[in-house]
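Internal QA ticket QA-208
Title: Verify multi-chain structure generation after dependency bump
Assignee: T.L.

Test input:
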Amino acid sequence: MILVVDLCFKPLSLSKYEFVDPIAGIAKRKGSEYEVVHFSELTENGIERADRIILCGTALKDGLYARRIDLFSWIRDLDKPILGICAGMQVLAAVFGGGIVPQPKIGLDGIDIVKETDLLGPPRSIEGYHLHNFGVTLPPGFDLVAGRPGEVEAFKDAERAVYGIIFHPEVRNRWIVEKFDAL
Amino acid sequence: MLLGVLFSGGKDSVYACRRAMETDSVSCLITVVSQNPDSYMFHTPNVVWAKLIAEAVGIPQLTWPTAGREEEELSDLSDAIAAAVDGYGIEGVVTGAIESVYQAARVQRICRELDLWCYNPLWQIDQLEYLRLLVSEGFEVIITGVFAYPLDESFVGARIDLDLIGELEALRDRYAINPSGEGGEIETFVLDGPIFKKRIEILRAEKTYENYRGRFSIGEARLVEK
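Actual output:
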């Protein structure tokens, strides 16, 4: 089961349709089992039952998740694949000792994949949709997978299947979520 | 949260409004009326009749003119949204964007500049599921414009029902059209739905069609009790 975690400022917000449902929809169309839960309503049992976890993005003005990093300490010792998208990547950065830094970007732009991973494949350029006010700095022990040190597009824990991408894969890059589901 | 919905009277803006009314409070409908029939940003046919829908759902409408020149449309939209902040105290904007990165990114930038929330509650929705949802929830939607091969004259003015959705699905599979028309293939107008306190009756309309471009232009319409 894929646990799709809603990071928006409240459960069942109007943003859920935009940032959570499209990700859950990719799993649904693939025929995968999934559950959607808001980050304030996560339970140990729900996390335990998941095979893999996706932390979704939020609206540009939404910053509550960054003030409640304490609610994500369970990620530190997780031993299953996790993918953070945009706000979700920022949460992963903060949990593992990286930073969340002002770095606004809106719209389609090229993304240089610089390191081969199981998720994003070999180095090449792709195009992705960006919608964020904040970016990240690399946490210790993480590899830069796409972008450059001053503008991290994707990272991965050097040892574990902990991935972050700052762009939104539901636009033109649904294959990333499908690939994550198959890791 | 008080929200303003970018509103053309087409199905996407009406359904986005419905979703916004379920989670938040919609204090105004913002209609930008373009003088350019090929507007980059704004749905044009029958947009003057959006005022009837606003009246039918009981939400004030703010209308704003634009000459419809590509980048000027954006500053006009920004001015319209700023007027909605002043007049109705909105804290966020709702759009009916489904796939259009062009449209969505531009509205996101305007909202960021004005320090407003931006919501796109139909973003990336499965288009056929969405059309079926409109029908099952009781929205009466007619096609007011077709602008792509192979949409024939029978679609102009037709009501979206399950049979018509089946036809659009077949055309999607064969010709790769967007079944909900977000690529500009189809434009629509909503006559009734669960958020309507009254329904719209069309008294006079003119149908034109040539070379896979057709319009159903409303000439006279009124609100009637449901």
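Spot checks passed. Helices of chain A lie at 16-19, 21-30, 44-49, 64-67, 87-95, 174-181.
Status: verified.
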